Amino acid sequence: MAGKPIGLEVSLAVAEAVRLCDADVVAAYPITPQTHIVEHLSELVADGKLDAAYIPVESEQSAMSSCIGSAAAGARTFTATSSQGLALMNEMLYIAPVLRTPVVMAIVNRALSAPINIWNDHSDIMSVRDAGWVAVFAENGQESLDLTVMAFRIAEDPRVSLPVSVNIDGFTLSHFIEPVVLPEPGEVAGYLPPFRPLVKLDIAKPVSIGLLGTPESYTEARKATDDVLLASKAVVSEAFADFRKHFGREYNLVETYLTEDAETILVTMGSISETAMTAVDEMRAEGVKVGVVRIRLWRPFPVEEFKAAIRPAKNLAVIDRHMVLGVPDGPVALEVKSLLYADPVRPAISNYVLGLGGRDVTRDDFKHITKRAQEPEAPGRPRFELVGVWE
Amino acid sequence: MAKEIDALMKVRDLPAGFTAEPGSTLAFKTGDWRSMRPKLDREKCIYCGFCYIYCPDGVYQDMGKDEKWYKPDFDYCKGCGVCAHECPKDCIEMVLEEV
Q1: Is A156 helix (H, G, I), strand (E, B) or coil?
Q2: In sequence order, what are the beta bridge partners of A165?
Q3: Contact pairs from chain A to chain B, CB under 8 Å
Q4: Does pLDDT of B23 surpass 90?
């Protein structure tokens, strides 16, 4: 079950996961920092190591269009993109969930222009968070690989049949060589059943896909999609639990680190969580009661699991990697505040935006944030900080 | 607020992926969008078929060599007036739709 870890660039590990899942179609356009994933996949296809159609499309809009068509034709479908590429897919991103086409996409997270920036933050995914995709965030190389395998299982489950994005921090994860355990092909086949599409283009039983929804039916079509997305949480949990049985690695919708007696909890997503945990270790050594709650499943938002995870805290420091212009909070903080607003007892919530456009996020940042979050609320002082901005 | 009695489709009845069986647009009578309707002067009609060819919705039906005219299907004619615009003999007039 537990194989030997090998050193592998995380992008290549993701591509190898797609090979192990025996994808049928890869339609993608290269864009930094995602390029190594599809580059490696095109090599695997050219070398006959992956029996798939590789479609080198002329844009990301075409990539997602091809993927939707491919999934509707019953093919296991993968693509990957970043930043401007995701933005160029925008209109198709909102279509895939309603059509129930289970495309799997690695989003190698990168800042959106302008100014042009190729480095990591979460502005790309956060700008399309309402599109209706299941979205998970990886913390390290092994998670990037494992979540890609699990993404196919979740997406293609007939109770879900929705697209899934695996969010992988650009460069900090994608371009690093990390120790990863590659599952055996047979092991993956035991975990991931053959794709039996819920909605299928079939000449024996023709249907029209991609219809007009008039005022009489648009609301109902959106609601039907939301119902499925919300209900997919149970299937995600099931896929995580079953993954543990097959591969021995444990995944939860929300992860906690030293939260049992924590007075202050840092809420994180993605790779900075490892830095946060190291900072927590150092602060704990000095007697600070601080812990980390990491949101792995971002959509559908695991409301109950999140609330249970943060319960002991007096102070909640929500960390965002995307700046919402025009509102004094990041997207994660906006949602956390919204879902806790009606609770009679809730922690003091403060929000910290940092690590934009590839700026380093350090242990000292988390120590600073923890200190700020513990300060009593001062009238007139917003509980928000754009950490490290030079004004 | 929309009354349930008016509901054409309920969430629970929608097919997965918002799909439809072939030919379902036949049930969608677009004729009630019409504010103007084509009125034909069959005396002037030379049975050239321009209305039949140009109609963007294919509502004109060929009545055959004996009758020698094209008949619009008012269940689907939206009253766009392309037929009247293209008719080389000006034998189609767009008149106000009276309800």
Answers
A1: helix
A2: A105, A135
A3: 52
A4: no
Same domain, A159 and A280: no
Residues of B in contact with A200 (CB under 8 A): none
Q: Are strands A25-28 and A77-81 parallel, antiparallel or unpaired?
A: parallel
pLDDT at B24: 82
- When the pLDDT of each residue in chain B is averaged and rounded to a whole number, the result is 91
pLDDT over 60 (residue B6): no
User: Who contacts A50 (Cβ-Cβ below 8 Å, separation ≥6)?
Assistant: A18, A19, A22, A23, A41, A44
Tell if the CB–CB gap between B18 and A224 is shorter than 8 Å: yes
Q: How many angstroms separate the CA of residue A240 from the nearest CA in chain B? A: 25
User: What integer pLDDT is reported at residue A293 of this predicted model?
Assistant: 98
B60-69 mean pLDDT: 96
B63 min Cα distance to partner chain A (Å): 31
Taking CB atoms and an 8 Å limit, are B24 and A99 in contact across chains? Answer: no
The reported pLDDT for the residue numbered B4 is 54
Which of A98, A208, A220 is opposite residue B9, by nearest beta carbon?
A: A220
A-chain CB neighbours of B22 within 8 Å are 206-208
Are the CB atoms for A355 and A361 separated by under 8 Å? yes
Q: Which of residues 86-105 of A touch B (CB under 8 A)?
A: 98-101
- What is the reported pLDDT for A249? 97
Residue B4 to chain A, least CA–CA distance (Å): 11
Residue in B with minimal Cα distance to A159: B16
* Residue A1 covered by a domain: no
From the candidate CATH numbers 3.30.70.3270, 3.30.70.20, 3.40.50.300, 3.40.50.2000, the one assigned to the domain spanning B30-99: 3.30.70.20
Residue to test with chain A: of B1, B5, B18, B29, most A Cβ within 10 A? B18
Q: Place B10 in a pLDDT band, splitting at 50, 70 and 90.
A: very high
Instruction: Residue A312: give its domain's CATH number.
Output: 3.40.50.920
Q: Name which of A202, A201, A186, A222 is nearest A98 in CA terms.
A: A222
Query: What CA–CA distance (Å, rounded) separates A140 from B81?
Result: 63
- Are B91 and B32 in contact, with CB atoms under 8 Å apart? no
Residue B39, pLDDT above cutoff 60: yes
Helices (H), chain A: 10-20, 35-46, 60-72, 83-88, 90-98, 123-126, 141-156, 185-191, 218-247, 272-285, 303-310, 331-340, 363-374
Is the previous residue joined to A115 through a cis bond, with omega within 30 degrees of 0? yes
* Positions of chain A with pLDDT under 70: 1-2, 381-382
pLDDT for residue B78 = 97
ipTM at complex level: 0.87
Give the pLDDT of residue A3: 80
